[in-house]
Amino acid sequence: MGTPMSAVSLRQLIASVEETQRKLQRAEAQLVLLRDAVREARVRLTRAHQQPTENQATQHSVELRINTLQGVAEMFQKYSEV
């Protein structure tokens, strides 16, 4: 049979699990915020596309922002899956 866990190691394990849960909840909250930011940026991009071609710099800037936000969101998604 296995060795029984000491009370100290059990407390350490519980503290570690609780900290991991807090980190996971924080990552999930950040993911929600990132998804909202991507949604808002897509609205801005749609509006920029509806404007004359003078907004090409704005369009490109918003496209870069969307790509960056999506990359960060994917990172948080992977983190929360681990």
**Can you summarize the main beta sheet?**
none
Cα distance spanning the termini: 30 Å
Q: How does the overall form come out from the CA principal axes?
A: rod-shaped
Q: How many helices in DSSP terms? A: 2
- How many strand segments? 0
Averaging pLDDT over every residue, what do you get?
86
Rg calculated over all Cα atoms? 21 Å
Q: What is the helix/strand order? A: HH
* Poorly predicted sequence stretches spanning 5 or more consecutive residues: none
- What share of residues are in beta strands? under 5%
What structural class do you assign from the helix and strand content?
mainly alpha
Helix content: over 70%
Structural summary, described in words:
The protein is an all-alpha fold and 82 residues long. The chain has a domain at 28-81. It is 85% helix and 0% strand. The protein has two helices and no strands. The chain has helices at 7-50, 56-81.
